[in-house]
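The authors assume throughout that readers already know how a fold can be written as discrete tokens. Each protein is reduced to its one-letter sequence and a matching series of backbone shape codes. I therefore recommend that a typical entry be quoted early in the introduction. For illustration, here is how one protein appears when written out as sequence plus structure tokens:
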Amino acid sequence: MPTPRKTLLVHGGCGRRPSTIPEGRDEALARAVAEGLRGKSAIDMVERAARFLEDNPLFNAGTGSVLTLEGHVEMDAAVMTSDLHAGAVGGITGVRHPISVARAVMEKTDHHLLVGEGATKFARHAGFPLYDPRTATRKKRWKELIAKLRAGGEAAEDRYWKRTRSWLERYLSPDERGHRSTIGAVACDAKGRLAVATSTGGIWLKLPGRVGDSPVLGGGTYACEQGAVSATGFGEGILRLGLAKYACDLMRTLPCQKALDRATAFARREGVEAGLIGVDKGGRPGSSKNAPWMPTARSVEGGPGRAPGLPLR
């Protein structure tokens, strides 16, 4: 059996190509790969890469996460390894690196998923310091959106919560509506171990308590003996399809790239915008999307280079 290749891939969300690509986005993805490669094991690699991107306010994860209807940040994150160990947090607040809290859930508890106040309380007990991930840019944009909503005559929360989607279409810019900057990483180490990490702040003006696909095992994040997959796109749709596990299951009989292509084609038929990155147990990478754009970067031991920020295909 061939020796597994050390491989790391990262993504920065998918959707409509922004009219102006934020300066530094592609470099950040490339640097996240470089940071991840400092890890020896697959789980170390994906955590390091994800932490790096969580610290960059260009992405909707960790610092720079978008705000809920009430002006708070509620973050989702998950990690999983090919031996089916996993940890996740949903709706966590007040932490800098939700991906590391997810790993702590995996390694320090008997649970797979902690949510809301319980997740935040666990983070405090586990030694993660209090941190406000809201940026001045995000807070300013939230105030603008709320002012527009209230000017529309819907002041009562119990009335306008039901109309969040129509408001998002009306008030968010095309770039804000069309691109989701969730971050994700998949890796294979020299021993053939696989791991995946996915982290997100969710969607603008989401209802408090909304949890998307990223922390749900099999939805936006999954790893097994055959492969590891991180998803990005329309969260509710990805969750409904169990897209990450579907792609991993396809790797039982298909090469990684073909499995991802089939999974995103399935999502397209179901009307779900999605992008996937994945790696199989031999370290062979893949990337697929049914949206116009998905910024990525990668490193494959012994493989050809690829400019950061470009699709892997």
Notes: Confidence is low (pLDDT under 50) at residues 153-161, 305-313.
